[in-house]
Amino acid sequence: DGGITQSPKYLFRKEGQNVTLSCEQNLNHDAMYWYRQDPGQGLRLIYYSQIVNDFQKGDIAEGYSVSREKKESFPLTVTSAQKNPTAFYLCASTARRVAHYTFGSGTRLTVV
Amino acid sequence: ILNVEQSPQSLHVQEGDSTNFTCSFPSSNFYALHWYRWETAKSPEALFVMTLNGDEKKKGRISATLNTKEGYSYLYIKGSQPEDSATYLCAFMEWGTGANNLFFGTGTRLTVIP
Q: Nearest chain B Cα to A49, which residue?
């Protein structure tokens, strides 16, 4: 079955470390997205990519970086510059502008 | 950042009750309005994508309406069942940005009591 796989499900990071969250899709979708969820807030867009080798900053890109070397993969790196990285991270993809998003099951990142 | 508001934040209903919630979004530059259901420990699941003013969509006991001129959408659940317990998210897509970005509300958390 087609879908989006996010890994790991839970991630613990020490302060000052970079960590990379994986997002892989086998839906042949062109566009992929990273969202962050904090308690009491809606999903906020970190980065998005509409095509391989191209990506754009979302509303809260500071302290994050991404790459899109393959259509199937859109990894997110949370750098040490991200001041408050503890959050739930969701990856999504879509085939075209009006189509619904397909979401992964998320990664919960905790800084210890 | 566009403002998308959902109300109520949470509600509890008895099994068999019908219920509805509201999503408010900017009435200008409308392109699309999405509804998703997000059950605990699962991925958000698409319910509806709505694009036309006056649109009504239905999926089983769940339906939605759209008013783009005044900037709101209602989600209705008829005869709520315990399996309807979830957070319901709406998301707004703006015209003209060239991107498919969605702006999400904070969700309405529904608990159906057996």
A: B99
CB contact under 8 A, B34 and A4: no
Pair of tokens at residue B87: 């957070």
B92 touches chain A (CB under 8 A): no
Of A31, A42, A44, Cβ closest to residue B100: A31
For B17, phi then psi, to 5°, come to -75, 150
CA A46 to chain centre: 7
Predicted confidence pLDDT, tens digits, chain B (114 residues): 678 999 999 999 999 999 999 999 998 889 999 999 999 989 999 999 999 999 999 999 999 999 999 999 999 999 999 999 999 999 999 887 666 789 999 999 999 999
Name the nearest CA neighbour of B95 among B76, B70, B68: B68
Interface residue B1 vs chain A (CB under 8 A) = yes
